[in-house]
Amino acid sequence: MQFYLAVLNEKVRLDDENPSMGIVLCKSKDKTIVEYALKDSDKPIGVDTYRMVSTLPKELKGQLPNPEQIAKLLENMG
What we know:
about 35% helix
């Protein structure tokens, strides 16, 4: 995570933007493992659990790109 945040801050972040923050999503969260894994980190990193759902919540419909839009965005990056 430190590597990705460092590259993002140096190569992508604009001068008027705040430093990047890492987010680690885990199927389960073990406080001891997280505490020691991030103990020496000097960058802001959030850790949380996730759950899978089969349908998109109503409040998110129309706010996220569909799979075709994501594929097109990825094509344009390369």
